[in-house]
Amino acid sequence: MSYPGYPPTGYPPFPGYPPAGQESTFPPPGQYPYPTGFPPVGGGAYPPAPSSGYPGAGGYPATAGYPTAGGYPGAPPPGGAPSYPGVPPGQGFGAPPPGGAGFSSYPQPPSQSYGSGLPQVPLPGGFPGGQVPSQYPGGQGPYPSQPAAMTQGVQGTIRPAANFDAMRDAEVLRKAMKGFGTDEQAIVNIVANRSNDQRQKIKAAFKTMYGKDLIKDLKSELSGNMEELILALFMPPTYYDAWSLRNAMKGAGTQERVLIEILCTRTNQEIREIVRCYQSEFGRDLEKDVRSDTSGHFERLLVSMCQGNRDENQNVNHQLAQEDAQRLYQAGEGRLGTDESCFNMILATRSFPQLKATMEAYSRVANRDLLSSVAREFSGNVESGLKTILQCALNRPAFFAERLYYSMKGAGTDDSTLVRIVVTRSEIDLVQIKQMFKQMYQKTLSTMIVSDTSGDYRRLLLAIVGQ
C-alpha cells in the first residue's frame, strides 16, 4: 500500500529499500485535511547545539574565487606545506593530528566494496583507507562496529497492522473520548500500532461515521506533549515535514536546527514533495521563506537543498572522489581562507555513497578527516548543515541517534525534537537508530525516554519506540 511521501526511495547506505511495490506517491494538492492555522508546536526554539567532540570551529574569511576543476597539483605530504607563524617547523597543513587521522568523531558503517579495484593507500599507523578506530560523539571510547542487519535494508518500529479495520478503530477512539474522562490507553493502543497510512483511513472513517473531525476531538481531550505527539502521528509524513519547516520559520526567530535536520537529510523525492505540499497547504514558497529567514553561506546551502537535485546514482566514481577530495583540500586546509562555494557545490550535489568515498579519499589527502576540517573552516549554522550532510553519508541512523541523545541530555528536554524524530523515523529506520543509540551511549533509547518523560506521553513514546 502507498504511504504519502514515505517510505523514501532509498537511503544510500542501506541498499534494497523500499520493498518492491511500496514506492511512495504524493497525494494531489489540497488533500491534506489540516487547516492552515494549525496551532504552533510547543517547546520553543532549539537549545544551543551541543559540543559533539569535533575540533574547534572558527569564523571564515570572505569567499575566494571558485577553483577550476582538475587543475590542482597533488596535495603536499604531511608537514610539507609551509607552516603558519607560531607553528613548530615541519607541521604544515598536512601534518597528522594527534592520535592519527580518520573519521575521529563520528561512527561509521562497515566499509563497503564498490568493486573499483583501486588500491587502499595506508595511512600513518597502518589503518587502510582512513578507517581509523573512531570515537562516537560522546568521545568516551572506541565506537563499536555497526550491526550487520543495518546493511541489509532499513526497518521501522511501526508496521501496518494486520486485519486492519478503520471503522472498528474509529469506534474505539470515539468510545475512548466520549463521556467523562479519556481512556488514554485505548488511544495509545490504536495509534502506536497502526501505520501512518492506516491512521489516515481511521481519520476518514471517523468523519464518515460521526460527522466530526477526529483531530479536533483529540485536541479537546489532550494537552501538552501528549497532544503534540498524537497530532504529529496523524499528520501525513510530507505534511508533517512541511508543517515543521513552516513552524520553524514563522514568528520571531528561526529554529535553524529544524531546517537543517529536515532539508539536509531527506531524499530528492521527499524534498520535492515537501516543497509542493508547503505551497499547496500554506500558500507559500519554501525557498522564498528560507531566503528571508537565513543569510550568507547557510542560506545558499539550504537553497541548494530545496532543489531536491542531489545525484542519487548508487555507483561510486573513485576517480571523482579523489578529485573532489583534492578540491576540498585546496578550498580549505590547503589555503589561507576558505572557498565556501566549493564545499557547497560538492556536498550539495554528490550522492551519499559518493560523499562517503570522498571522505575516505580526503583523509588520505589531508591526513585529517573531512568532518574535522569542516569544523576548522566553518562555524555556526553552515558548519552544522555541512556536518549533517557528511554524517548522513557516513551513517544516517547514527546522526538521528545523536540528535535524540542531545534532545534529552542535561537539564530539560527538547520535546519537539524528540517527537519529530521518533515520529518521522518510526516507519523508516527507527530500529537501526535504536541500535546505534545503544552502541554510542551504552544505554537504550527507551531507558532515556523513561527518565526524561512521564505519564501518557511516556507511554505512547515507548509504545512507538519499543523496548
Structure commentary:
The chain is mainly α. 49% of the residues lie in helices and 0% in strands. The chain has helices spanning 166-177, 184-191, 196-210, 214-221, 224-234, 237-249, 256-263, 268-282, 286-293, 296-306, 318-331, 340-349, 352-366, 370-377, 380-408, 415-425, 430-441, 445-452, 455-465. Helix 2 packs parallel to helix 19, helix 10 (296-306) packs parallel to helix 12 and helix 11 packs antiparallel against helix 12. It is elongated, with a radius of gyration of 23 Å. Mean pLDDT is 77; it is low at 1-29, 32-104 and 110-152.
Report a brief summary of the structure.
By secondary structure, this protein is mainly α. Helix content is 49%, strand content 0%. Helix 6 runs antiparallel to helix 7 (256-263), helix 11 runs antiparallel to helix 12 and helix 15 (380-408) crosses helix 18.
Task: Give the key terms.
467 residues, mainly alpha, 49% helix, disordered N terminus
Task: Outline the secondary-structure elements.
Blueprint (H helix, E strand, L loop, with lengths): L165 H12 L6 H8 L4 H15 L3 H8 L2 H11 L2 H13 L6 H8 L4 H15 L3 H8 L2 H11 L11 H14 L8 H10 L2 H15 L3 H8 L2 H29 L6 H11 L4 H12 L3 H8 L2 H11 L2
